[in-house]
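Feature request, filed as a ticket because there's no other form

It would be nice if the structure record came with a short human-readable summary line next to the tokens. Right now we just get the raw output. Example of a typical job, pasted below so the devs can see what we mean:
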Amino acid sequence: MALRLLPSYELLIRNQYSSIEAITLQWLHRIIVFAAACYSVLLAIDLLIVLIPDIGFKPRRVVQYINDISLFYLFGLAGFRHGLLFNNRQINTAMASPVTAVESEVFPVESIKATAKYGKSSLTAELNAEILALVDQYMLKQQPYTDSGMQLSDLADAINLSTHEISQAINTSGSNFYDYVNGYRAHKARELLESDRYHYLATQDIAVEAGFASKSTFYKYFKKHYNFTPAQYRKNFSQATENAVPITTNS
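Raw output as currently delivered:
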């Protein structure tokens, strides 16, 4: 049952965070599988004791102690490594600062007050499209995705909409917040790879500039959108640019 619940929680994380490397639930999946294996061994020992009452040595208590200590250690280690699961930014969401003057210039007052229009009801396809267009406008002009720690709540605070409204608008487009933001990061990375100003940067540095939290995520989303690794794309673009420049000779 726990394994069946994990995908829904993983989707919840993808709808809240733009970088999930530090809060992935793979550790929990491993612990659940380990616990199931441990208690399967205990069950086998219990059956053996029932079938052979005079077995003599009864290792059940020793095995149970080893299992309990191992699980306690694994949970403690996971909690130490994944402290971001208990992020104070979530607690302070209700105390977020108002929209800045720069953002108010980008988004007119009538657009920012869209929350009153949408309310808490289920959003129609037309309203979802309008919200998504507003989010796209903010993402393009302000580029908040370059912050690897960007969360859905940050985006909601910036354009004065609820996290539910933004999440639903993104979900109805066939994506989730994590994929949506990393798509923008991939596009930003492409711009940087094509820019003469950043030609000296290694691809890993390009990933950081674009807002990616890990090299593997950078490669995954860049290849998803452009069918090339970043290094291959830069090489191809460089060759295409050189071939496009006419060769001049001195007469």
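Something like this underneath would help us a lot:
The mean pLDDT is 79.
The first helix runs from residue 2 to 14.
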